[in-house]
Amino acid sequence: MNKKKIALIPGDGIGQEVIKQGVKVLKTVESLDENIEFEFTDFPWGCEYYLETGKMMAEDGLDQLSSFDSIYLGAVGYPTVPDHISLWDLLLKIRKGFDQYVNLRPVKLLHPGLTPLKGKSREDIDFLVIRENSEGEYSGKGDWLFEGNPEEVVLQTGVFSRKGTERIIRYAFEEARRQKKKLTSISKANALNYSMVFWDQVFNEVATDYPEVETESYLVDAASMFFVREPERFEIVVTSNLFGDILTDLGAAITGGLGVATGANINPEKKYPSMFEPVHGSAPDIAGKGLANPLAAIWSVAQMMDFFGEKQWSDKIEKTLEDVLVHESELTPDMGGKSTTDGLGDFFCLKLKELK
Ligand code: NAD
Ligand code: IPM
Ligand code: MN
């Protein structure tokens, strides 16, 4: 029996709506497989909790989460709470506190009709971005000097440690070797004359341990252009925290939008729980209207199953995503459909059952 304890943090806005659909999918998996059992615990943390308590999560929140096999998170962010508070005290606190230094974000076209790129097929858009997820531009370090004076200066420090840089690049090489794929490093050493020079140096050093892995290196500006014009250049990409953040929204744009983009925050050593979430945010512009596309959150369930060693279920969920995307009228409005968040969640579960 594969029994897993899952912490649910639906969070804010559409996070609550899409996690509900993901839980339906998990329960469907449970009902179809007698060897799998999930135990869910709900955590009401987020901006509403903050407005009531002054905290984004319980004081001992990380302790409470530490015994779970995974965390399933919706989204964080609310118009009346400053983003740098809400995100740093919940989402980024978990990523950093649990040393989830690997962020796996597939850029994969699940249905040919979803890409705005003319003439690009499913084979052309199928790669994995491995984003550094613990430091870099997101070190949280900086300074605010002479506030309000004409001499005011603000510093935001990028921190690229030897350990942090080497471990993400090594993880990417291992993955490239395992999958027999080309590995592309995306950096920016021409302008960022410390951090990215170091990044490139570490990439080249680690590469000598993997002579069988083909490598390429791009500057992030040029890489952005190639994401759009020639996405077929990429197989596995490794990049820094901020570049990975921006490039994966671009990746979402070429594969159907944020409604269908997923990300896994992994602590590979399994010392701490890993966290699964859609790439999108709380989308206050559509929250509470049943308009949110749940497929990104459902795809996160596939990543979670893969992480749990249930590859057959991650494959089945991905296959069902492909099946569902054929039925345009059953989709949410962001994909040209007429359905609701709930309606699409139900339709997905129906199709998943049919696959069995
Ligand atoms: P967003 O991802 O919430 O929304 C961007 C646009 O995409 C909006 O027009 C939204 O309606 C649309 N969209 C997003 N997800 C969708 C879905 N599932 N279905 C249909 N349409 C969808 O980004 P934003 O507007 O820049 O940020 C809103 C808030 O979310 C901010 O507070 C931000 O900090 C936060 N945020 C949180 C996370 C996270 O928790 N992981 C990620 C990104 C942004
Ligand atoms: C993401 C989000 C977060 C990030 C924000 C909300 C801090 O944009 O998961 O892509 O920048 O990592
Ligand atoms: Mn982002």
UniProtKB/TrEMBL annotation:
The keyword NAD applies. The keyword Ligase does not apply. Its EC number is 1.1.1.83. GO terms for molecular function: D-malate dehydrogenase (decarboxylating) (NAD+) activity; magnesium ion binding; NAD binding. Its cofactor is Mn(2+); Mg(2+). Keywords: Manganese, Metal-binding, NAD, Oxidoreductase. It holds the Pfam family Iso_dh. InterPro entries: ICDH/IPMDH, IsoCit/isopropylmalate_DH_CS, IsoPropMal-DH-like_dom, TTC_DH. It catalyses: (R)-malate + NAD(+) = pyruvate + CO2 + NADH. It comes from the Bacteria. Belongs to the isocitrate and isopropylmalate dehydrogenases family. This is D-malate dehydrogenase (decarboxylating). It comes from Halalkalibacillus sediminis.
